[in-house]
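Can anyone check this?
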Amino acid sequence: MAGNQGTLLSTITFPEFTDLVRREWTSLRMNIVRNAKPLFIYDAIGSGQGSSKRYNELDTQTYAAQKNEGANSAKAKVGVGYQKDMNAQTFSMEIDITLEMRVQNRYMEVKQQITDLSQFVDNRQDIDLTHRFTFAGSTSYTNMNGFTVDTTVGDGLALVSASHTLAFSSTTYSNSVTGAPPFSETSFESALLLAATQIYNNFGEKRQMNFNTIITGDDPSTVRAVKQLLQSTADVDAVQAGIVNVYQGAMKHVVLPNMATTAAGAYDSTKRRYWFIAAVGQGLAGWQAYLGEWVAPTLLTPTDTNAGMDIHNFNWTYATYGMYGIVTVSPKGLIGSLVAS
């Protein structure tokens, strides 16, 4: 038999807490696994800093020029490349509990679990960060609250694209694995080839990045393939078991459980086999994806003596809120295979 739901914890809405029947409770409210935040550059913006922040690329040429005798030295070119503006967004959640429920409730541990909203903003932040990978092939998506989220990078294209542009050169580059294959040793090497040949500064000069992380969803076959590659002592595609696996322990594997989800957080099988390699945690030398935080997740708990109680009806309001923004300035340092399942 179906139960009931509501945002006001009252004896009328939830009589199960106060009636004569003795119950045992099982909770389906388990916090999600949050792995996305360390993949981004964290920027603690704080209060008093306005509602937006701009992130710019800065590039210089790489090589010295030959100088003829008696001639002046050549001037090095410096350029401010692409930019992205991060806008602060506020996220919050609250729940009310009546005086009667506070006094008459027989299951205080259940009430505590319901009114503990401390994880809500962190959970929302994680799925918003994860959806930058989920919607890596799109320039925008409509989030679970009906708002349009811009997912373009500095050149105006989707995060993963075969035709990214440079600010001061006609050269284009790709960070999309050709054919979007599932993860395997062969497709991993295809991604590494892009890492070796498709990283440029904005003047069209080849650069290198330290790709150190494999990112996947929790699709079992994909996770197994990654673990097999990184943990096997022998080459996973070799007939002879004695051949050394040169990729053993070569990268860290990060699993994002919400990778294969819709904007509303429901399962989306079409994205279950997406995978990426990235240069993570290297500041300006890594991939330039930022999480800016104006207000860290904050939990407000009421008492009879603070503003958390409505004096007209004696309801207590529990609330949580936070304020943050997400932008990716450049796709350099991230290579993806958006596998069609």
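Reply from J.R.: I decoded it. The helical segments are 99-104, 108-115, 120-134, 185-197, 220-231.
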